[in-house]
Design a protein that fits this description.
globular, mainly alpha, 76% helix
Length: 270
């Protein structure tokens, strides 16, 4: 319809922005279901539509969706480049919500790439931007970034940094991660069940990063209980990663039993 119909310039911009918004949703659904090729195709189409519509904030939103997918697939450097592209493209147009989302992801992906100081700087930028958010002034696609979301994203960033650090720096980053992820859980609406499962998986990973096996077992067990009966392609992927992280502690009887349970869940969830 966009290619063949006649419309005014203003209607055309609104049409392409609507297509971009729908494309980002369809792309995310595909990503969520593990259909990664379809997700990438839809995200790219949505990005072109956002460009045609002249909405740079929406374009930045689509780029951050693409970055999350790249990170999920293990391409941290590509994810960081996509976030940097989103930040640059929306630099004159982004409101505090968009800036907070992008800075939080910049922190997370910088940690994945081993740049812990840049991760720390970006975390501070995200926290500062979040305090300036006025919900009525933000575009609808930033609504998901509620009070819980920055705590969860930055909590995982600190967890990743703890894995790269050593000594008291590792302990300090792990403590920050635990505080932030616990805060995310406290702030989560009851209906955000899968997000709560992700938070518990994050807490389990942080406990493992500092060798706190009892905490890791407890949080993993809670995540598995929450995940029962849910559509869980991405949850299964996270649990598979957590299984890999438990390998250094496989000699523990509790961790060995947990690994067996994780193996069963991962096998049936794929």
């Amino acid at each position: 319809m966009a290619a063949t119909a006649s419309y005014t310039e203003d209607t055309g911009r609104r049409l392409f922005c609507a297509v971009a918004d729908l494309g980002s949703v369809a792309g995310w659904i595909s990503f969520d279901a593990g259909a990664h090729v379809s997700a990438q195709r839809l995200f790219i189409a949505a990005l072109h539509a956002a460009s045609e519509g002249g909405d740079r904030q929406l374009g930045a939103h689509i780029l951050q969706c693409m970055a999350r997918q790249m990170s999920h697939l293990g391409h941290a450097e590509d994810a960081l480049e996509l976030v940097a592209l989103a930040q640059y493209g929306a630099r004159w147009h982004a409101g505090p919500g968009t800036r907070a989302i992008l800075a939080a992801l910049h922190s997370r992906f910088s940690a994945l790439c081993g740049d812990l100081e840049e991760s720390r700087r970006a975390a501070g930028e995200a926290e500062n931007a979040f305090t300036r958010i006025r919900p009525d002034d933000e575009p609808p696609h930033t609504a998901f970034f509620d009070e819980a979301e920055p705590s969860a994203t930055l909590g995982v960033a600190h967890q990743i940094a703890a894995k790269h650090a050593s000594g008291h720096r590792r302990t300090h980053r792990a403590e920050q991660s635990l505080v932030l992820l616990a805060n995310a859980l406290r702030l989560r609406p009851e209906g955000r069940v899968r997000s709560r499962a992700f938070d518990h998986i994050g807490l389990a990973g942080t406990h493992l990063a500092v060798g706190e096996l009892a905490g890791a077992c407890q949080e993993t067990t809670t995540a598995l209980t929450i995940a029962e009966g849910l559509h869980r392609t991405r949850i299964t992927d996270r649990l598979s990663e957590l299984h890999d992280e438990t390998e250094p502690y496989a000699g523990s009887s509790d961790i060995s039993a947990l690994r067996e349970r994780l193996e069963d869940v991962v096998a049936t969830g794929r």
